[in-house]
Write a structure and sequence with these properties.
Length: 518
């Protein structure tokens, strides 16, 4: 069965000057194999949905959810391989590709409403009913069902620029939800400014987006964030004006939920909610989002994002946080050190708390500079591990080995107290600032004798000679070089020749262990 369209749905899409099919969520899913996407055709109740996603390494497309038989996909970017695939690169090349695309602007093209797939079906006012959407309860103590794959678009009236983020929405009724804008963010600042003026803040949420749009949404970079979306897509971005406000949203989204954040302020309890660090966030006072319209494609696909639980590394949220953290850390390293090589934020730490950096130290102290830069570029970065170029930052095994063999606790540990904290870290026990720790796992600068060299299988390369004696007359040689010198395919013959030689001449060893004629 084609994933591109559900059975019986019309397949023709209106087209304009911009390709409005290439970056639709369904097109991305259609290219995933069974190793990355699980498709379930059987009917499933909303109460059973959370268990399907928990700890699941694959994205899951549920084709008959609830009494409406709705389509719902989740965990779309719960693995780095799937984000990398969206960008057309291998997982290890994701960060360089994202930073490359961020430097290459792309046009934003506004299409008319009749061209926009996401406005094929429009419901406004009393026709709006959020409780008809396939929104499930994600965690046992959550304050209600949450829309979680919701990318928010709003306009900063001060600058006229569009702000884009991701914010979860807790269903409160048929036309209102809670929204968490508690943490410092651009949206929070924009909302507070409009609430101070006594004005509601128009906002729109896309649900059902290409993975690249999610990556763009979590970036926190200056400028118009629609431009970040276009740049990261590496292609022109088709946008359409919402039907009940002037916000421009991607015209190829699956669903758009339009409305406004009520000017009344942070007045209503929202939460608890299973958070990205693997614990619950408590009930907070937050604004109300009031819905004025829901628009969608005719064959719209709803989306949920996984978050929280015991398998953080397999959640959308941790994977998205990771790439965002890596971009921010990379940017800070570009000025702090000469030759940064790789950055990896482990998804199992929520995609931010434990960060690994590989660099080539050109001068002593650069590992410390890298640690300081990473500490300060993002509040979420808490532990930083810096390694030499020979360590693969993506390998838990190699990082463990580097920690075991290149680190002295009283020499290579950097601790900084009282830095800005993210309050949901339970180890803070209520404190408002956090300690950060840096682990310098680099080999002491300039100290690379044989005892810090890594054994590799021999390659037996080198000059050829008529005999071991002739080879040693040429100069000191390692055993491997002697084997190569006589073209041996064995090695034990060199032992025998050395023994014979020893009877006639003095064979010595130098500090590197090379054989020599004395
Ligand atoms: C799936 C997902 C859900 C998120 N939900 C929230 C949220 O409810 N509240 C929040 O403050 N940040 C949330 N975030 C993080 C913000 O989207 C992120 O910090 C973003 O960069 C903020 O954008 P802004 O500063 O431009 O407003 C979420 C991130 C992801 C990946």
């Amino acid at each position: 069965m084609s994933l591109l369209h559900p059975p019986g749905a019309p397949s023709a899409q209106p087209r304009g000057a911009v390709d409005l099919d290439r970056f639709r969520l369904r097109s991305y899913l259609a290219a995933l194999g069974p190793d990355e996407l699980e498709v379930r055709d059987e009917a499933i109740d909303l109460v059973d949905v959370a268990r399907v996603f928990e700890g699941n390494p694959r994205a899951v497309l549920l084709r008959r959810v609830g009494p409406e038989g709705a389509e719902l996909v989740g965990n779309v970017v719960g693995r780095r391989t799937r984000i990398a695939r969206a960008f057309g690169v291998a997982p290890a090349d994701l960060l360089p590709e994202v930073t490359r695309r961020l430097r290459s602007p792309q046009p934003i093209i506004e299409v008319s409403r009749d061209q926009a797939p996401v406005q094929e079906v429009v419901r406004t006012g009393d026709e709006v009913d959020l409780t008809r959407l396939p929104v499930h309860v994600q965690h046992g103590y959550d304050g209600g069902p949450y829309i979680s794959a919701s990318v928010d678009y709003s306009i900063d009236r001060r600058t006229g620029l569009t702000n884009v983020g991701m914010r979860r929405l807790m269903l409160r009724g048929v036309r209102e939800t809670g929204i968490d804008v508690n943490a410092p963010s651009d949206l929070r600042a924009i909302y507070e400014a409009s609430a101070r003026r006594g004005e509601n803040l128009p906002i729109a949420f896309a649900v059902g987006s290409h993975p690249i749009d999610h990556v763009a949404a979590v970036m926190r970079l200056p400028g118009d964030e629609l431009e970040i979306l276009a740049a990261l897509r590496g292609a022109p971005l088709g946008v359409v004006k919402c039907v009940t406000n002037d916000i421009r949203v991607p015209a190829d989204s699956e669903w758009i939920i339009e409305g406004y954040l009520d000017a009344a302020g942070m007045t209503e309890p929202e939460g608890p909610y299973g958070e990205f660090l693997g614990y619950y966030g408590a009930v907070k006072k937050n604004p109300i989002f009031r819905v004025t319209a829901i628009t969608r494609r005719r064959d719209a696909l709803f989306q949920t994002s996984t978050i929280g639980g015991r398998s953080l590394g397999l959640t959308d949220t941790a994977q998205l946080n990771a790439i965002r953290t890596e971009v921010m850390v990379w940017r800070s390293l570009e000025t702090a050190v000469r030759e940064p090589l790789a950055v990896y934020a482990t998804p199992s730490s929520g995609g931010a708390y434990n960060v690994r950096i590989a660099l080539r130290q050109r001068v002593p102290g650069e590992a410390r500079n890298a640690i300081a830069a990473a500490f300060s570029c993002l509040a979420n970065v808490k532990h930083v591990f810096v390694v030499d170029p020979d360590i693969d930052v993506f390998s838990d095994e190699q990082i463990d080995w580097a920690l075991a063999t290149r680190f002295q606790g009283d020499r290579d540990l950097v601790v900084q107290s009282d830095m800005r904290a993210v309050p949901i870290d339970p180890s803070l026990e209520g404190a408002r600032t956090t300690a950060k720790a840096g682990f310098d796992l680099t080999v002491p600068f300039g100290g690379r004798g044989i005892e810090t060299m890594v054994p590799e299988p021999p390659t037996f390369e080198g000059k050829r000679f008529a005999s071991v004696r002739a080879a040693l007359e040429d100069g000191p040689k390692r055993f491997e070089e002697l084997v190569a010198a006589i073209g041996s395919r064995d090695g034990r013959d060199v032992v025998r020749e050395l023994e014979t030689l020893r009877a006639h001449a003095a064979i010595g060893r130098d500090a590197e262990g090379r054989y020599l004629l004395e």
